[in-house]
Design a protein that fits this description.
Blueprint: H1 2-24, E1 29-33, E2 42-46, E3 49-53, H2 61-70, E4 76-80, H3 86-89, H4 92-98, E5 101-106, H5 109-112, H6 117-126, E6 130-132, E7 136-142, E8 145-151, E9 165-170, E10 173-177, H7 183-193, E11 201-203, H8 213-219, E12 223-226, H9 238-246, E13 250-253, E14 260-264, E15 269-272, E16 277-278
Parallel strand pairs: 3-4, 4-5, 5-6, 10-11, 11-12, 12-13
Antiparallel strand pairs: 1-2, 1-14, 2-3, 7-8, 8-9, 9-10, 14-15, 15-16
Helix pairs in contact: 2-4, 4-6
Length: 279
Amino acid sequence: MRTIKFFVLLVFVLLPLHSLPSQINAPPFEAHFIPVGYGDCILLKLPQGAMLIDGGVEEYGEKVVNYIQDCDIQKLDVVVITHSHPDHIGGIPAVLKGIPVGEIWVNQDIFANRAYSPIYKAIQKSTIPWKVIRRGKCWDNVGGVEIECLHPAMISHDPNDNSIVLKICYKKVAFLFTGDITPRVEKELLEIHKDQLKADVLKIPHHGHRSMHTFIEAVDPKIAVLTIGPNPYGAPDPHTLKAYSEKGCRVLRTDKHESIVIKTDGKTIWRETGKDRPF
């Protein structure tokens, strides 16, 4: 009789432990906003693969490579270069040299402007396949992830306004990555994509410079990430920060954290802070 009781108790204890891993596994989509001063660098760990959006300034190149390796990423499926300014492309050559990359996405401005020939030379030297992306679908339901390019359809004279804008959806959760677009492009997006702009997580355009309140209202984010560091431009604009505050949006800043990691299982969103907590 004692043997039977022990067996029943053993089964009772082991069954909950067997089901535990499915409850504590890290969410399968992660967005890492890497602090690179006044610049952009965002690592995406996808259910199937990984992406990098921009690389910060040149001096942060090795830091970015180390960060990616510390995340146990052996290969980047895609590196996205949103536009041709040094605070976005400077660290990319170090990434191309230090991490295997499957493909590079660029806008036409990278090759149209000879002032940014170093990044062009780095891409050519790497022999990594690259393609110019424009408005339209560019990643269709790979591991539950869909990526659409909302901008640009064509380039202008302003590199900031040539920024690649990506909406990335994982199941029911949407992220909007905006590069350094200005109110001129925000207005264009409102005219063309107003119903597609809503997102749970927004990368605040252009390091928090002046933004249209109607754009913020259309995106209506729960979380907005400000990629910022010391700068001579007066960023972020206090009126822009006030607009997010009035919307009840939580603003996270890369100058206040070692890194900002946002995770989702496609339904709920967490911020990693040593101990995950839901928003």
